[in-house]
Design a protein that fits this description.
Length: about 425
Amino acid sequence: MMKVKPIFDEALLDVYYTTQKLPKNAFELIYVDTESNDAIGPQRVIEQYCLKRVDAIFGIPYAYGLAPIARITPYWNKGVPVFTTSVKVEQFSNKQQFPLLTRLTETNALLGKLFVQMFNKYFKYDRVFYYFNEFEDPSTSIGKSDCYFTLNPIKNALSAMEKPVEFESMVFHEHSKDQAYLDEKHGQFLKRASFYARVIILCASPNTVREIMLAAHDLGMATSGEYVFINIDVSTGSHAEKPWLRSNDTTAENNEKAKKAYKALKTISLRRSDLREYQNFETRVKNRAESNYNYKAVTGKEYEMNNFISAFYDAVLLYAIALNETLKAGLDPRDGKVITSKMWNRKFKGITGEVSIDMNGDRYSDYSLLDLDEKQDKFVEVAYYSGSDNKLVKVSDFHWIGGKPPNDDPICGFV
């Protein structure tokens, strides 16, 4: 909650004074802690609605809490718009079920399209191995992890290609209490993967990806040039140029080993804006986090922005634009259906540049394909995918161990 408050503060200042879309104090912000709980969250939102305090809802960063809220708000008076900046699950594209839900984040379906183009153009492999984080208890009461929902459209898209890409997958629980057991498990599963495919697709937290790559180094898989690892890092909004580095690692040797392992790693990440305006905005938000909320003293760490937090700025601006147009047309500003109709299938200038919302209320996003450039000693963009154009554009050469990509099959075939 504390991370988003300075974003909303800055967004409202721009709405009132920079764009002048609405008069000062047009918004009253009410912050409610949903505790990331799919029972408590909807209940607390309903409580606010019963107090007649809800005209729009921003947030609900988890699918199981968002679903009931986005289903019921169309039936509240003339409807209440809902905005999310982080729920990417493909099922939320069904706007018959969620007619007033606008997503200011990328959707997982776009990742499937990206991978089809990657495998048609640059990664011409017949099989892949998925290795990803899943909840410890796979029961339906717990549900599925973000990684499951992220990878599922990729699996479906690659399997539906003219020449289908075969796959096998294994899961692990990255918050296992027995770290030694988990490290051993990574090694065992990577050995299994090595007998099935040359391409291993990962989805986990940055720390866990590092542990996996260290295990791959110990097995020789990350240094032989015979395997390529693809890390799907769209859930953290991270933009680390040196993701192998850990200041708290016990030895410099581990950092160096991790760096060698990362030469075999390609990363898919949300494309970051290099606009000076965005960088200035980031500075403004950090300053406000300290001056208004004493962020570092309270949390013990520096304020950091990511794509999901900054997208709240675009959500507020889009809502203000729609309200402005509704009022100018002499229509009811509390008619959620009218407001939503003015937000979909349009473009506007956001803090990261031009923002495109499709006719289904989902944001088109761009992705970067990154790999390690040894000369620059950092991860750099070698290609990017434009969601609105459905186009993968190469911007520099890929960096491969041994100067060439791995063969699709070993000389003697897979066992």
